[in-house]
Amino acid sequence: IVLTGGDDRLWKTWGFPEGNILMTGEGHTDWLSGCCFRPSGTQLVTSSGDTTVRIWDLSRHGCILTLRGHSRAVRACFWHSCGDFVASASMDGTSKIWDVNSERCRYTLRGHKESVNSIEFLPFSSTALTSSADKTLCLWDVRT
Asked: How many CA atoms does the CB half-sphere of 110 hold within 13 Å?
């Protein structure tokens, strides 16, 4: 199964090798910039130009949580390997670590001077890596 998102504001799951669409989700009001499966495979996260991050439950075929807090488009999203946290990177120059269980932002990472274009957790750690339009990379210990 492959997961995609695009300018049409939709995410889609595709079956291979046939290439058929298995599921489609709609709800964002602007382009999708990122999408990622939860490690358990039961949910996914999407990020969008509409400034939101959304959690989708695949068995319910719908959005179960909308995370708001960025002031500009969200460029990327990523699940932590434990499945309880989501990271987002935004054109507002910040990244956020979201606690999915409490449905709130746990940390806002500030330090880049321009848009944060990507974020990823290192596997099985509390370290996140961000990249920015300011031509820098940052490693963050999200516990501190």
From this structure: 3
Give the pLDDT score at 143.
84
- Positions of the chain with pLDDT under 50: none
Q: In what order do the strands lie in the sheet with 32-37?
A: 32-37, 43-48, 52-57, 62-68
| Amino acid (1-letter code) at residue 20 | N
- Which DSSP string do the residues of 36-53 spell out, in sequence order? EE-TTSSEEEEEETTSEE
Which CATH code of 2.130.10.10, 3.30.379.10, 1.20.1250.20, 1.10.1760.20 fits the domain covering 30-141? 2.130.10.10
